[in-house]
From TrEMBL:
Pterin-binding domain span: 1-285
Family per similarity comment: Belongs to the DHPS family.
PROSITE patterns cross-referenced by the UniProt entry: DHPS_2 (PS00793), PTERIN_BINDING (PS50972)
Reactions mediated catalytically: (7,8-dihydropterin-6-yl)methyl diphosphate + 4-aminobenzoate = 7,8-dihydropteroate + diphosphate
Chain residue ranges for the region called Disordered: 217-253
Gene Ontology cellular-component annotations: cytosol
Cofactor entry: Mg(2+)
SUPFAM superfamilies: Dihydropteroate synthetase-like
NCBIfam families according to UniProt: DHPS
Alphabetized UniProt keyword annotations: Folate biosynthesis, Magnesium, Metal-binding, Transferase
Enzyme nomenclature, EC number: 2.5.1.15
Enzyme class, spelled out: transferase
Protein name: dihydropteroate synthase
Length: 295
């Protein structure tokens, strides 16, 4: 699943695809790079993001969805608003990706039941302003599973067919880094529920923190097996630089995203949602070749 943010303030690529023609061109490029579907959103859901009026959200995304679907692209709409979701479906989108989590609205349930489209149910607590303060879990895997099952029951009670439901553990939504990793390691708690599972780790904070910690553990001058010293931060062999590595920016997390994507696929994920489709598609191609060879 390739990410197409038609927003000015997304954490990774805000403002890059606000122009409809630029957005469509990027969506087509995602497909050429290997995306099976493109997830189009018009509202940033990063922590601290300002809410967007649904009418503005629709103005951003509907022209893009129409043009992509006219070119045969399978599109999901990334929205928490039932009116936007319905308009996007009318424009050609085939999947609703809703990160509202505990704020799931009855109008959304009615829409999904009435239209019969696939629906991605994401675990989340609070909104962009409050989610970080709600990242408190005694057992994140068990609690996320239980809360998703509660939301699933609301969908079933509202007439949604179980076959429509895709589960997403909501990495980064009211989660801290250790909690994100525990959810990934415990993905079978969700894949075992009989629904497809989406993993959306791309460029998220927990990857940046993990990479920064790994780089901080590096000791300049450590010996490689062949006896050559590793370079320091300046690139000089065996140097004594002591500067602490900075947290890698969002784009610098694409290799880590591809690694998570491979591990998620091996754990049974239905799809991975990513910004850099080519990196992940290549990594998954290697994983498939390894598996075919008996690895």
């Amino acid at each position: 699943m390739g990410i197409l943010n038609v927003t000015p303030d997304s954490f990774s690529d805000g403002g890059e695809h606000l122009d409809p023609e630029a957005a469509v061109a990027h969506g087509l490029a995602l497909v050429r790079d290997g995306a099976d579907l493109v997830d189009v959103g018009g509202e940033s859901t990063r922590p601290g993001a300002e809410p967007v009026d649904p009418a503005q959200e629709r103005r951003r995304i509907l022209p893009v969805i129409r043009q992509l679907t006219e070119r045969g692209v399978v599109v999901s709409v990334d929205t928490m608003h039932p009116d936007t979701a319905e308009a996007a479906l009318q424009a050609g989108a085939g999947i609703v990706n809703d990160v509202s989590g505990a704020r799931l609205r009855e109008e959304m349930i009615e829409l999904i039941a009435r239209t019969g489209v696939p629906y991605i149910l994401t675990h989340a607590r609070g909104d962009s302003a409050t989610m970080d303060s709600l990242a408190r879990y005694a057992d994140p895997v068990a609690e996320v599973r239980a809360e998703l099952l509660g939301l699933r029951q609301r969908l079933l009670d509202g007439g949604v067919d179980p076959a429509q439901i895709v589960l997403d553990p909501g990495l980064g939504f009211a989660k801290g880094g250790d909690q994100d990793w525990r959810l990934l390691a415990g993905l079978d708690a969700l894949t075992g529920l009989g629904h497809p599972v989406l993993v959306a780790a791309s460029r998220k904070r927990f990857l940046g923190s993990t990479l920064a910690a790994a780089r901080a553990e590096h000791r300049p001058g450590a010996q490689l097996p062949d006896g050559a010293a590793t370079p320091d931060e300046s690139g000089a062999p065996g140097g004594s630089g002591s500067a602490q590595p900075q947290t890698p920016g969002p784009v610098e997390r694409d290799v880590a995203t591809a690694a998570v994507s491979v591990l998620a696929a091996r754990a049974g994920a239905w799809a991975v949602r990513v910004h850099d489709v080519r990196a992940t598609a290549d990594a998954l191609a290697v994983q498939r070749a390894w598996s075919r060879a008996g690895g």
